[in-house]
Amino acid sequence: MPYLTGVTGCEDPQHPNSAYEDEFPPIEHEFAESATDPYELGWFNDPTSGAEEVADICDGFWGFGNIPFEEKMKWGTALGTAPNGALYNQVIDGRYYYLQQMYSNATETCVQRKALPPVVSKLAPAKGPIAGDRKVKITGLNFENPTVTSVSFGKVAAKEFTVTSPTSITAVSPASTSTGVVEVKLTSSGGTSAGTTADQYTYETK
Hints:
Elements: H1 24-36, E1 44-45, E2 52-53, H2 67-75, E3 80-81, E4 87-88, E5 90-92, E6 95-97, E7 102-104, E8 109-111, E9 119-124, E10 127-129, E11 135-141, E12 150-153, E13 156-157, E14 160-165, E15 168-172, E16 180-188, E17 191-192, E18 200-204
Parallel strand pairs: 10-18
Antiparallel strand pairs: 1-2, 3-4, 5-6, 7-8, 9-11, 11-15, 12-13, 12-16, 14-15, 16-17, 16-18
């Protein structure tokens, strides 16, 4: 897929990774269509203006000149702003991207991604007093869109928590009835984080 900078309909309107991701919108668009319609015989939508393949359904065409609607349909809701000021709607391997939505038969809408459960990769600090009230930074993935709705230390809900980004949460540990190790669990509409050695929090006497 050639670099298509400046070609209307092919260039990414946001550049959260400088120029690297500019090739992705046409690649993902055409790859989705080659996977769902490899022989140009199926997976067609038939609007009055002509046939469209699966990726075309969410390219904003249906806005008919309503630019805000077209942008929302094609790109969805941004997850945040990259350090260079550009919007991003995907985090892949720790890098920011701005990618086109695709049509989902499951939801019958244009979607940016399948809802994935949150993942915990680090707790800082990973231990605290049995009395609780320790502020803990939780690092991982899939904390937004869908957004994490609960954080628990073992079976007890965090005293409070704030989702600060798609990869970071700050939570305040609750009090515990005993010392020892508990798992920090995160839950969103995408599911609950799986247990790993990275999500273990240790309660100490002091």
